[in-house]
Design goal:
This protein is mostly helical. The chain is 56% helix and 3% strand. Helix 9 packs parallel to helix 16 and helix 13 runs antiparallel to helix 14.
């Protein structure tokens, strides 16, 4: 009997203390804390500490953590030179995957203890942001902007991108975006990171593999596809006819629907308000167009199929990043700048689980549905006997 490929949906493969999703109620929890509370009261650095250490930091712990992140921002000059040898039109995710993996060649340090893994996590979180910003400068023929130790993580990334410090409101908006994308349980890229970590590979290898998984358009690449859709629509007047036409053809509307959430994605709730706020600041039309896409898709899904559909995290993040002047092909690398925190936390949990039995190498079973010539297998014929 043939086994249908369901992508491991609904299959529990491991315990985790890091995050949880309640798809029916539309809740996302980081280490016991509601994501809506964290976006309201926390910062990216504080949230990163929480995801790595299972508790919110004290004031002294947070300051020490932020200092370590700032000290780890610089990447080797030789790495920058190697970036300059790449094609300037290379996919930024290919570049990011390559240079995150290459970090292991520059930092020959110990990976075997839990404490040393926290140091690797800090190195990875800081340098991932610098790699993305540096590549964007290099490919545009601009001088690389060195990190500014006076700026927090979100502001420093924008500074390295554009060579100007963001205003406080823009900094806060981007900081919240990073919090929202930091973890999301066993999604494709996180499961990839844990699967590689289960082989006892080091953190840079596991994170590099996760970046590869994130690059696909059904995962991290979805917000890029959303922005392409919005640009194709072009104006709010064209939204309704465009959506109806696409849905009549059975096409998927990017940014709508989620494999887990059966109601409004809580991250989309926050991003929608951030997009609204930024559009009011910039005067761009993209929030209005996106909101019209949401409303039209919901109405058409109800009319055509009699069921509900809701926005996911990608719908409003696309226009938000676009209004922040971030190039569209950097949407997914920016996803990685945030999600690398979750990957690191899951890699550490996978390798150094304390509350559960020591993790085993992931080795799922497949149902073979290929050629069958009998219990002894097929008879091999030499090349001259084959027709």
């Amino acid at each position: 009997m043939e086994t249908k490929n369901i992508g491991l949906r609904g299959i529990e493969v491991a315990d985790t203390r890091i995050s949880n999703i309640d798809g029916e109620k539309g809740k996302l929890i980081y280490r016991g804390y509601d994501i809506l509370d964290l976006t309201k009261y926390s910062s990216f650095e504080e949230t990163a500490y929480l995801l790595l250490h299972d508790e919110l930091p004290t004031k002294d712990q947070l300051e020490e953590f932020k200092t370590k992140l700032k000290e780890a921002r610089f990447i080797p000059k030789r790495m920058q030179e190697n970036m300059g040898n790449w094609r300037k039109d290379a996919d930024p995710m290919d570049m990011l995957q390559a240079f995150v993996s290459a970090l292991a060649g520059y930092y020959d340090e110990e990976f075997s203890t839990k404490e040393s893994s926290y140091d690797k996590a800090i190195n990875l979180i800081s340098k991932t942001a610098t790699i993305v910003a540096s590549w964007n400068r290099i490919r545009n023929g601009q001088k690389i902007v060195d990190p500014d130790p006076t700026l927090d993580h979100a502001a420093n990334f924008l500074y390295m991108m554009f060579d100007e410090k963001p205003d406080p409101e823009v900094e806060k908006i981007f900081d919240i975006c990073l919090i929202l994308h930091a973890d999301h349980t066993f999604n494709a890229s996180t499961f990839t990171a844990r699967q590689v970590a289960s082989t006892r590979a080091h953190m840079y290898s596991a994170a590099s593999a996760a970046i590869g998984a994130l690059s696909g358009e059904l995962h991290g690449g979805a917000n890029y596809e959303v922005m392409k859709m919005l640009l194709e629509i072009g104006s709010i007047e064209k939204v309704e006819s465009w959506i109806k036409e696409q849905m009549a053809k059975g096409e998927r509307i990017m940014g709508m629907g989620h494999a887990v959430y059966k109601t409004y994605d809580p991250r989309a709730q926050v991003l929608k308000e951030l997009s609204r706020k930024l559009a009011a600041k910039t005067g761009d039309p993209w929030f209005d167009i996106t909101e019209k896409v949401e409303k039209t898709t919901i109405a058409e899904m109800k009319r055509q199929k009699g069921r509900d559909i809701y926005p996911n995290v990608d719908l409003y993040s696309a226009s938000l990043y676009y209004m922040l002047r971030i190039p569209m092909d950097l949407n997914t690398p920016i996803f990685a700048i945030s999600r690398v925190v979750g990957w690191a936390a899951h890699i550490i949990e996978e390798k150094f689980a304390e509350a559960a039995p020591k993790p085993a190498l992931y080795r799922p079973k497949a149902s073979y549905v290929g050629k069958y010539c009998g219990p002894q297998g097929c008879e091999y014929k030499t090349l001259d006997l084959r027709k």
